[in-house]
Predict the structure.
Amino acid sequence: MASATGIPDSISNLDERYGEEEPLLGRAGDASQQEGKSLYYNLFIGTAVIAQAGIILLTASVWASVLLSDLILFSAHPLLNSAGLLFLTQGILILQPTHTATQKKQGTIAHALINNFAADALVAGLVVIEVNKFAHNGTHFESPHAILGLITYILLAIQAFVGATAYFTPRLYGGVDQAKSLYKYHRMSGYVVLTVMLATVCAATQTDFNKNMLHIKLWAILISSILVLVGVIPRIKKQKLGLTGPKASGAFGQ
C-alpha cells in the first residue's frame, strides 16, 4: 500500500530502516548489511559480485603470466602488488554496506586487518623492485608505471596513517569529534587511491619487461579495472561523503 506521501509503505519502511544508506545508484538498503548477517556477506552484496569478478580476473591475469614465465627476483613484484590490490579491494567491499554502530565498528576492525595484509604485500613488493633496481643499476621513476607507483605508495601511506590514527588514536586530532570530521575525506581519498592503483597496473602492461617477458594484455587489465570500479562505485553511500542528507556518524563505513 501507499503512504500519505504517495510512496509505497515498503519503500518508506526501507528508507527508515537504513537511514543514511542510500547508495549512488539504487535505493536505500540496496547495498546495506542485513541485521544478523556476517560481515563476509558484504563481500558479495549488490554490485560487489562485479567488483569481485574484476579483481579476481586482474589478479589471475597477473599471476598466470608471471608463473608461466621464468621466475626471477623481479617476479615477486607483480605477484605481491597484485595481491595487495586484491586485499585492498576486499577491505573496501567488506566495510561499505555497514550502517549500524555495531556493524560499523566490526567493519572498521575488519577493514583495518585486511588492509594490514595489503600493506604487508605492497611494502614487500616495493622492497623487491628497489633491491632489483639497485642490483642491476637500474633507473628509478622514469616510466609512467614507476611514476604512478610512487604516487600510489605516497597516497597509501597518507591514507593508512590518517585512517588508523583518526579511528584508534583520535586524541592526535584534538578528540573524537575532530577525528570523525576526517572520515568523509578518508572515504573519498580511498576511492581515489583505488583508481590510481588500477591505473598503475594498466601502465605496467606498457613496460618493456611486460612486453618482452610477461605479455600481460592491456585490454584484459582495463576490462578488469572497469569491472572493479563498476562494482565498487554504485555502493558508495552519498550521505557518508557529505553529498546529501544527514552526516554519517560512528565508525568509518564507506
Summary: The radius of gyration is 20 Å. Residues 88 and 115 are 6 Å apart (CA to CA). The first helix runs from residue 9 to 18. Residues 1-16 have pLDDT under 50 and may be disordered.
